[in-house]
């Protein structure tokens, strides 16, 4: 079988496209993150304005897409307008299968359009379509609905689009795909908006062949059986990632009210179990996934002044959304929380960044750093969903300097108004939902995206809690680095991280062989480490310096399940991580 090595190049300025065969990249870097960082280094000039035409948008998929279960992610890579260095975001849905079915391993979008545009990609190339009629539509949901009527290929097509937040260049605007999936973190939506790019659609009709059908069938069956019989996968199917709420709350590791607390007696109201019992309307799966971890709430409410008439709103939820727009803001009324999630979804914002920004603003208001003059009359208080929903609208529309500052992230806002010690961001990216111990925060600081998905430091914290033994700083750094490097392999295959227990070295090597790419198991770790180094070199090229990482003081004030966190331990672990990375 031939690897997907074709790269589609689309220029929004000239409205021309070309196709290049880049087997040189795919043979070594596999696909996904590995190929994307190489293309980013190639096409993003040093010092490029993240919101300028020189910043490319890169989508990349891997050789297992369309062949194996849970290989269903697309990697997006760009220079982040939030952090000023590496922007990387992963999304499920149909995008990966659509790109591969169209005959491409990667898509590179360059330049910027003078007028609103959307790009339609298929196996023949690119159509550049006028988007003037849909530019200004703030709802990402409505935008998707309109484009579905304009484009053919329902069922095999992906629609990646922005809402009002992307158009207004909010630095943590997301790109929505298939309604319930997102390129959420680090501001890809703002990069779309800066290029006047409302959407990218991809549809394909190519099939896939394998050279050894018998071996492929045996390997496929092995992966599938492991997936459907795994207790972890069953948990994600039944309750979803929202099942993390109660264990973290009981362990006192659930960030609450801007991490002033780590537990709440009201947490059960927004738990995965309660949401499933009272609101679960649908489960949705990404393409070629037997797990269906995407949980959709059906919120049924009466119309105002219309007895017996009800509207039902379908709202996606998972752990990170519940943390950011629930516990982090003290919103423990489940209906109010779902309303806030829906508002963030419609505007096209990253939920984690939005929740952390609003939490900082709430505390800043309590402490008198800002007043109702800055908030335009809003009295931001913990749990006040209507005020938060209005603040979300203001962040998108930016009617004054304060909301324009919030639209640039919590690091920027706190530097301007004060309160940096409780501005919860790591490396410029707003905090994920874990305060499980020191290693989770070392992971946030050292991860290439400053995300909980980089090295899952919370898992090492959980093991230390179970064993009642915290590893020393050097051991913690070594464990994080090993996991972070291996995740580069998985994200180059574009395998879902939930399946990391299934796709070990031997299974990865075996599946790659059936896909026409022979890589011995012992070579995979060095490939992952090389990809990780290239990501960090790009960051350093764009001004990142790990010695200048800011650690919010709140991390040390609020006890974790492993006790109070020691700053010296964090600093030593971070230093050791980077020493080992370049050793």
Structure commentary:
- There is one protein chain.
- The protein has 583 residues and is of the alpha+beta class.
- The protein has three domains: 6-203, Aldehyde Ferredoxin Oxidoreductase,  A, domain 1 (4-Layer Sandwich), CATH 3.60.9.10; 237-409, Aldehyde Ferredoxin Oxidoreductase Protein, subunit A, domain 2; 429-581, Aldehyde Ferredoxin Oxidoreductase Protein, subunit A, domain 3 (Orthogonal Bundle), CATH 1.10.599.
- Helix content is 43%, strand content 15%.
- It has 25 helices and 17 strands.
- A hairpin with a 7-residue loop joins β14 (294-302) and β15 (310-317).
- The chain is globular, with a radius of gyration of 22 Å.
Secondary-structure topology with pairs:
Layout: E1 6-11, E2 16-21, H1 23-29, H2 32-43, E3 57-60, E4 74-79, E5 86-91, H3 95-101, E6 106-110, E7 117-122, E8 125-130, H4 140-150, E9 157-161, H5 164-167, E10 175-177, E11 181-183, H6 188-194, E12 197-203, H7 213-229, H8 231-238, H9 245-251, H10 272-278, E13 280-284, E14 294-302, E15 310-317, H11 319-325, H12 334-347, H13 351-366, H14 372-375, H15 385-397, H16 401-406, H17 410-417, E16 425-426, E17 429-430, H18 438-446, H19 452-455, H20 457-467, H21 473-493, H22 505-514, H23 521-541, H24 554-557, H25 567-581
Parallel strand pairs: 1-6, 7-12
Antiparallel strand pairs: 1-2, 3-4, 3-6, 4-5, 7-8, 9-10, 9-12, 10-11, 13-14, 14-15, 16-17
């Amino acid at each position: 079988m031939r690897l997907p090595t074709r790269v589609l190049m689309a220029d929004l300025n000239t409205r021309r496209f070309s196709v290049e065969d880049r087997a040189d990249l795919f043979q070594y870097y596999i696909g996904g993150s590995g190929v994307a960082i190489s293309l980013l280094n190639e096409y993003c000039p040093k010092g490029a304005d993240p919101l300028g035409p020189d910043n490319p948008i890169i989508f990349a998929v891997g050789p297992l897409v369309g062949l194996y279960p849970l290989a269903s992610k697309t990697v997006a890579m760009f220079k982040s307008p939030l952090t000023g260095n590496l922007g990387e975001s992963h999304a499920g849905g149909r995008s990966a299968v659509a790109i591969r079915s169209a005959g491409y391993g990667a898509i590179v979008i360059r330049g910027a359009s003078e007028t609103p545009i959307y790009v339609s990609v298929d196996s023949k190339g690119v159509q550049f379509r006028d988007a003037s009629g849909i530019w200004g539509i703030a709802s990402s949901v409505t935008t998707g609905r309109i484009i579905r009527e304009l484009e053919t290929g329902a069922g095999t097509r992906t629609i990646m689009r922005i809402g009002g937040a992307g158009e207004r260049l909010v630095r943590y605007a997301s790109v929505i795909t298939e309604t319930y999936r997102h390129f959420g973190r680090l501001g890809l939506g703002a990069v779309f908006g800066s290029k006047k790019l409302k959407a990218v659609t991809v549809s394909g009709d190519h099939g896939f062949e394998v050279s050894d059908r018998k071996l492929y069938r045996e390997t496929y069956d092995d992966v599938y059986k492991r997936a459907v019989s795994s207790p972890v996968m069953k948990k994600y199917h039944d309750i979803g990632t929202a099942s993390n709420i109660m264990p973290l709350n009981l362990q006192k590791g659930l960030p609450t009210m801007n991490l002033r607390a780590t537990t709440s007696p009201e947490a059960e109201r927004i738990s995965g179990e309660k949401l499933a019992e009272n609101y679960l309307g649908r489960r949705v799966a990404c393409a070629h996934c037997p797990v269906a971890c995407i949980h959709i709430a059906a919120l049924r409410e009466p119309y105002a002044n219309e007895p017996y008439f009800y509207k039902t709103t379908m709202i996606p939820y998972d752990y990170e959304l519940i943390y950011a727009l629930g516990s982090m803001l003290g919103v423990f009324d489940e209906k109010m929380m779902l309303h806030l999630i829906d508002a963030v979804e419609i505007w096209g914002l990253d939920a984690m960044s939005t929740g952390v920004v609003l939490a900082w603003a709430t505390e800043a208001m309590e402490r008198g750093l800002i007043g109702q003059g800055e908030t335009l009359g809003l009295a931001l208080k913990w749990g006040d969903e209507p005020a938060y929903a209005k603040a979300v609208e203001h962040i998108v529309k930016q009617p004054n300097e304060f909301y324009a500052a919030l639209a640039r992230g919590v690091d920027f806002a706190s530097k301007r108004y004060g309160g940096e010690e409780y501005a919860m961001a790591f490396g410029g990216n707003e905090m994920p939902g874990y305060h499980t111990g020191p290693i989770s925060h070392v992971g946030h600081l050292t991860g290439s995206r400053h995300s909980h998905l980089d090295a899952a430091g919370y898992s090492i914290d959980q093991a230390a809690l179970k064993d009642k033994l915290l590893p020393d700083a050097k051991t913690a750094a070594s464990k994080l680095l090993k996991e972070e490097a291996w995740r580069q392999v998985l994200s180059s295959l574009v395998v879902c991280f939930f399946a990391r227990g299934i796709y070990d070295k031997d299974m990865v090597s075996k599946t790659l062989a059936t896909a026409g790419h022979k890589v011995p198991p012992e070579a995979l770790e060095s490939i992952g480490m090389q990809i990780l180094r290239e990501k960090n070199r790009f960051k350093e090229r764009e001004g990142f310096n790990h010695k200048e990482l800011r650690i919010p003081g709140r991390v040390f004030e609020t006890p974790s399940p492993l006790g109070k966190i020691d700053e010296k331990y964090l600093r030593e672990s971070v230093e050791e991580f980077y020493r080992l990375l370049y050793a």
